[in-house]
């Protein structure tokens, strides 16, 4: 194994910077829950991925929940922060600008195929400057360019009181607190907060909360947690209420949605 696993969150490191001889380089970290890589940027693009654990990636006024079945592309020069929701293995692919698999300056959420997952694992084990490393780099870039994209972006406000509320809900999506109770906590009236949600996010408080609850549901379900337990943890009155909201949002029941993806991943691995 040629890649050192870091257990800290220091970001001003350049030893893994990609270049024309190494279009893809990997930074590996094993981090405890609630670890934070504070806002930083670099000259190369990055695919942020965790084969184990769930990440929260924030860029500007948006945030994404990234479970093991997904990764997120962060373009060069984009300021970003990464927080572990649970204990996680972070495997960041640093990609030279000349080989960027996507155009533009927008973050893109990717579905991680079984093939891509295994190639990332192989790159972790490959010897530096080896022919195997070079081949894996090319294959990874090709697979990334064909990866399916997923829209799990969650908008965040800039208004201080509303941002305090939203960040607290991101940390505890199952909180049963009403908008009135949140208003008392952040020092605003309920009417003011309702107006700010509509103005800054284009959603009601209930709609925004449903959005983050569904985003947090993905990593729980992929770990095999029973739907009844997922529903309870996220503040739903029943499993059926959770399933109904999931189907309304994604067009499929959660069991169907995730079974289809696991089946597709399994077929890709067999092929």
UniProtKB/TrEMBL annotation:
Superkingdom of source: Bacteria
SUPFAM superfamilies hit by this protein:
Homeodomain-like (SSF46689), RmlC-like cupins (SSF51182)
- Signal peptide region: none
Q: Which PROSITE patterns match?
A: HTH_ARAC_FAMILY_1, HTH_ARAC_FAMILY_2
Recorded GO molecular functions are: dioxygenase activity; DNA-binding transcription factor activity; sequence-specific DNA binding
Q: Which InterPro entries match?
A: AraC-bd, Homeodomain-like_sf, HTH_AraC, HTH_AraC-typ_CS, RmlC-like_jellyroll, RmlC_Cupin_sf, Tscrpt_reg_AraC-type_HTH
Keyword list, A-Z: Activator, Dioxygenase, DNA-binding, Oxidoreductase, Repressor, Transcription, Transcription regulation
Domain named HTH araC/xylS-type is located at 160-260
Look up keyword Oxidoreductase and say if it applies: yes
PANTHER family named in the record: HTH-TYPE TRANSCRIPTIONAL REGULATOR NIMR (PTHR11019), TRANSCRIPTIONAL REGULATOR-RELATED (PTHR11019:SF159)
Recorded protein name is: AraC-like DNA-binding protein/quercetin dioxygenase-like cupin family protein
Whose protein is this, by species? Glaciimonas immobilis
